Amino acid sequence: MKVLCFVNKFNGIVERVKKLSDDITIASFNPSSPFSDFVPSDVIEEPFEGATFIEKVRKLADPDIVIFSDETLIKESASVFAGRNNLGLISHSSDIYMKDGKIIGRVPGWENLSAEVYSLTLPLIVLKGVENIDLPEHTRREVDISDAESRASLIKTKKREKNPLEDARVIVGVGRGVKAGLIEEIQAFAKKINAEIGCTRPVADMGLLPNFRMIGDSGISVHPEIYIALGISGAIQHLSGVNAKYIIAVNTDPSAPIFARSALSINKSVEETLPEIKKWLKNFS
């Protein structure tokens, strides 16, 4: 079975794909990538360009399955590619495996349940990464994306701004357990400790924080040294995007799933805890 992987940063995906096959072709959106078999002729900055690159590499590699990393631009490009070609896309998979002759993507569900999903078309799977892995250099082939045909006309392009959460060493996560009136105080707290603000999807959906700060299946994956989770229960849809060295969790529910992942668990309300943390910081400084 021939597998085609699109990945910019090696985060464990290729190693996990090896359990399906050793015939793996690697493509990157970065022209200077030293570890890819296929790279674009120019830097890809938006999903329509990305989808065109995917289509051209697919024709050259002729894979039986295509795996995409969950990096924002790659998974957005995968969605455009799937739409253009009327293909099914299994998003946010935490794992892949063979079962009854089918390639299965395991997709997390609510209340820490999961579903086994397979495609009736060419399998396209967005797979979440888990760790950094160094791979040897590959012989690269450039793929020209300048003369691509598209169902859509590109009217204007804008360089994608880097999400401040991507390289943040400390992130303060805001969950549904945080009252709207506390957001401003939490923002001030984050600024004082040189941290970035992130949130769960319900918080973004309520408009309390912008969508680009959403962490998890529907948002961005983060890799901070410290993640301070305020009022976050710990649903898998959110925690799948949190790859932190240390998690400090504040929640009133003693059985909250977040406490199974946290190095420090504080079973109190956010309102009670914030003043205590501020006092500690003041004494510490």
How many DSSP-defined strands?
15
Shape call: elongated
CATH top level label of the largest domain: Alpha Beta
Structural class: alpha/beta
Tell me about the biggest sheet?
5 strands, parallel
Low-confidence stretches: 130-138, 149-155
Helix content: 10-25%
- The CATH fourth-level homologous superfamily of the largest domain: HUPs
Describe the structure in your own words.
By secondary structure, the protein is of the alpha/beta class. It folds into 2 domains: 2-143, HUPs (Rossmann fold, 3-Layer(aba) Sandwich); 170-284, TPP-binding domain (Rossmann fold), CATH 3.40.50.1220. Helices cover 24% and strands 24% of the residues. The chain has helices at 13-17, 47-61, 72-84, 183-192, 201-205, 236-239, 270-284, and strands at residues 2-6, 23-27, 38-40, 65-69, 89-93, 95-99, 102-108, 114-117, 124-127, 141-143, 170-174, 196-199, 226-230, 246-250, 264-266. A 5-stranded parallel beta sheet has the order 2-1-4-9-5. A 5-stranded parallel beta sheet has the order 12-11-13-14-15. Helix 1 links the parallel strand 1 (2-6) and strand 2 (23-27). Helix 2 (47-61) packs across helix 3 (72-84). It starts with a strand and ends with a helix.
